[in-house]
Design goal:
This protein is an alpha+beta fold. 50% of the residues lie in helices and 7% in strands. The protein folds into two domains: 11-149, dinb family like domain (Four Helix Bundle (Hemerythrin (Met), subunit A), Up-down Bundle); 168-252, Nonspecific Lipid-transfer Protein, Chain A, CATH 3.30.1050. The chain contains eleven helices and four strands. The radius of gyration is 18 Å and the shape is globular.
């Protein structure tokens, strides 16, 4: 598709964006009272502390993939049969009841991932959960995780998150993996190309896919990110579909592998 971020030649820029997006997590949680770390988030059963612990695990996994392939294989081999179950289980190994220790752990894992990805050869695929991917693509996936779980934290705390054009890497990643929503539901993706026309936070037009495509998604890029991370229901977002396949895609879109989860209800985060 047209204009996808070149995550190989532009690796330094993607890494800088990953660090900046990751630091949003710090801005949300530093200085919180212990009771606020225990607040429930929109993800059922997950507190703010669980969200940060999940990010710790994902970033530690990414940093290990970039720095020690053998250690990565050992880590993932233990979760081969039930990765989501293993992820949920490992959350309880983090200091969920000690905010200061958990924040320190997050910062260490964040820096480890960012520095390891920055040091990896841009054109050398890294081992990952399904197949090897370039470090730039893995950095984009990390940004997607930070955006998604950061939104959960912000929602729990009743605050907003200011989006910038660095979400372009999340948008590009979601377009690149547009078929994940079908795969998670055992569906066959349609044999057609989609056109995505999105407006960035700064007002730029981001366009992906052939001009003449009959299946089109248009709207706000930040809303698009909330859609593909399933942090908002499509009814509460400024996104429009043209074509039956595009219309269906808005219902199932996701930028991560595995079960879709419950998502969010219509009107749960409706704009005033």
């Amino acid at each position: 598709m047209n204009n996808l971020p070149n995550v190989i030649t532009e690796l330094p820029a993607v890494i800088a964006d990953l660090r900046a997006e990751s630091e949003v997590i710090d801005s949300l949680v530093e200085g919180l009272a212990p009771a606020d770390w225990a607040r429930e988030t929109p993800a059922e059963g997950w507190t703010v502390a669980h969200q940060v612990a999940h990010l710790c695990f994902v970033y530690r996994l990414a940093g290990t993939a970039a720095s020690d392939a053998a250690a990565f294989e050992r880590m993932t081999a233990q979760a081969a049969d039930d990765f989501d179950g293993a992820v949920n289980a490992v959350l309880n190994t983090y200091p969920l009841d000690d905010p200061e220790a958990l924040l320190a752990r997050w910062r260490a894992d964040r820096d480890f991932a960012v520095e390891s990805l920055a040091a990896a050869p841009a054109d050398q695929p890294l081992p990952w959960l399904v197949r090897p991917i370039p470090p730039g693509v893995l950095a984009c996936a990390g940004m997607m995780e930070a955006l998604a779980h950061g939104q959960d934290i912000a929602d729990a705390l009743g605050t907003g998150v200011e989006r910038t054009d660095r979400i372009g890497s999340v948008v590009g990643f979601a377009v690149l993996v547009w078929e994940f929503g079908y795969q998670s539901r055992g569906l066959t993706p349609p044999d057609t190309e989609f056109r995505f026309e999105l407006t960035s936070p700064s007002g730029q037009k981001w366009e992906f896919g052939p001009d003449g495509a009959e299946q089109r998604i248009t709207g706000d890029a930040a809303d698009f990110c909330l859609l593909v991370t399933r942090r908002r229901h499509r009814d509460d977002l400024d996104l429009t579909a043209e074509g039956s396949d595009a219309e269906h895609w808005l219902d199932i879109a996701q930028a991560y592998r595995g079960p879709a989860g419950e998502g969010r209800r219509p009107g749960q985060f409706a704009r005033s």
